[in-house]
Amino acid sequence: MTAPEQTAEETNDPFADEAWRAAIEHAAGCPACRTPGGGCSEGEGLLRAYEEAARQARSGGDT
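RE: above sequence
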């Protein structure tokens, strides 16, 4: 998984917080996510969902 542009603490959006929590919980239990250079499509998808939710929260929900 790659580092997100923004951490969950910087948003006040419950969806972004929930998406961040889901990504972290997945990564904590996924051997592929914990392995440097490991590839995990589910972890990457969860991270992308968080990044999109955080981006929308920063823009006021406009897409």
